[in-house]
Amino acid sequence: MGGMAETDIGTGTGRRVSAARERLLSTAGQLFYAEGIHTVGVDRLVAEAKVTNATFYRHFRSKDDLAVAHIEGVDRAIRAQIASLTAARPPADAILRGIGASLVDQIRSPGYRGCAFLNAAAEFPDPTHPVHRAVVAHRDWFLRTITALFAEITVAQSDHAGRHFVMLRDGAMSAGYLGDPALAGETLLRGIDGLLRIHATRDDPDPPAPTPTHPRPPRPDIDCSPPAL
């Protein structure tokens, strides 16, 4: 088909996936995260992905269309990671601690440049732009997911606790890039621990004595930046 290699992996829908499209998405993810979406032009994307301009426009109507596909791909990966973690049915607090621990690993990783979703929203502030809408869709889902986990701990305060967790996450991811990653990660984990203890105590008329340490939580590898090539 015009020399364009294809594979059957990656969709779960029975449709064939172009290897060239996957290379474009992988290349775009790396460059967009490292340098910004607006900074990277189509010519560079085409050259580094080793495809032609015709191939690019066969798969994406524009660079913005590619940016949306990139954001939606990161969103799908995070949804799958959390679904895999919750499938084992651990306690809600263990899942929340695991998400926090994974975020800390990301903040402390080499090449960390903040949250790809927040970065994209800053580049596309117009709420009607498809990239901005893709970011908002992910964040709406993430907030609902965190709130549902807190609902297993505190029914009355789950909405507040969910918003608090997401704000802790946003602040830590920004502080980890602009300041000391170790301190940002430590502050995030302390904040999550405090949030869980406060809300568990409020809903439990006879709370158990706090334990001095917590077992290492499961880590779902929640990653808001693309993996290294």
Characterization of this structure:
The chain is mainly alpha-helical and 229 residues long. The chain has nine helices and two strands. The chain has helices at 19-35, 42-49, 53-59, 63-87, 92-107, 116-123, 130-151, 158-178, 181-203; strands at residues 6-7, 17-18. A two-stranded antiparallel sheet has the order 1-2. Helix 7 (130-151) crosses helix 8 and helix 8 (158-178) packs antiparallel against helix 9 (181-203). The chain is elongated, with a radius of gyration of 20 Å. Mean pLDDT is 85; it is low at 1-15 and 210-217.
Distinctive features:
229 residues; single chain; elongated; mainly alpha
Outline of the structure:
This protein has 229 residues and is mostly helical.
